[in-house]
Amino acid sequence: MKFIVKLFPEIMIKGGPLKKRMINMLYENLRTLLFRIDDSILIKRFWDKIEVQVDKKNIDAVRKVLQQTPGIEKYLEVVQYELGEDLQAIAEKVAEHKLDQIEGKTFVVRAKRTGEHSVTSIEIERFVGGYLYEHGNPAGIDLHNPEVKVEFELIQQILNVITLRQPGLGGFPMGIQGDVLSLMSGGFDSTVASYLTMKRGIKTHFIFFNLGGAAHEVGVKQVALYLWGQFGASHRVQFVSVPFEEVVEEIFKSTHESYMGVTLKRLMIMASEKVADAMGIDALVTGESVAQVSSQTLRNLAVIDEVSEKLILRPLATMNKPEIIKIADDIGTREFAENMPEYCGVISKNPVTNASFSRMKREAKRFNYDILNKAVEQALTIPVDKIIEDVNNTAPVDVVNEPGDALVIDIRRESEVSCAPLDIENINIPFTGLNRAYKKLDQSKQYVLFCEKGVMSQLHAQYLRDAGYGNVRVYRPVSGPTH
To answer: For residue 305, which phi and psi values (nearest 5 degrees)?
Structure first.
């Protein structure tokens, strides 16, 4: 099976050197991602496309990579034949793949030629269309609004019959636009903002301000790991955790209640700037949307930005909440966000909506910045791909290859379970509702958590351990969990 990868249109209109650099970056990103599946996959780059040749066993895994890699506008799945200009042979090969699809439906044939040929595209289309009409049972031919579009390419002597056309992620190749540091709370806004910068080809690192203890940190780590694994895994990025409990305590001591929310955001930006400086990063990303909450009026955002010389990107600035939630639905982060507590709201009593610059300066002078500096000094940085290892090293969760007397809890989504069910007795509690559901289970029993790759089961087992449950472990079958 061959995949023909079409590039994002904005790449194609760039000047020669930049376009070449972007194509090379996408090529290298795909090599990194696809070779993790199988290093025998063949990848070829051209001036306007990239071709990927795979074995049948790897088709589904390659599809997933191509759907989620920034820089790809769409990809075509093709079956390839070397036939020359033999119209009869071309029609027969196209018919092998398309006769079933046009059964009882209107259709049109679209052919594209590349190279020197003695026949025109229209002549090829007419011949193949006539052959399909004669040998199939279509409802008819419709040149303008067909139910089925039969597509193929004739490139010199090679026939590519297009069996599937799928949209890609769009955007620019990851890494081509430099690095940013994204303020990550794990909610709807910060996750969608991070996704949008990743889609634009920006290498997106994460900084998390811990206001809720170990359980909150594990929750945010799993979102960061998910985003990276889905859309940015071609590059290594960092997860920075900054302990902010003492900073919040100092805000309560030093700041008028109406200015606490703005002050917290200013301090997060200040801390992020210090971390970004150390990482050599020029820009910050936040999930703020104008007027969504009190701290996000234009005046308040201006007061917040006053503390930093960094470029602050706000991809969601003009989006409304339904639009943001729709994107979260599309990229698979909604369930994470819905189960993430909102800690910033604890200091939003009677918040100012039109902060005064002069008043803010007076409030800021009362804050003890030694506490902020201490928090930054205590920040911990790990590569996102090492999150599971880090969580386990902190307080290892037992991993078992056989459940024994324990009840297996399959924490995958229902759609994943239906595609590959476990072949042993279990109950299904999707990870998004596990923390609420677990406390209702019989705590005299032992439980083991299962997920496909062991990532979510490790994180959630640790989460439950931190919450005081000692009767949970991770189930990881040796010989494969599904039938």
So the answer is: -70, -20
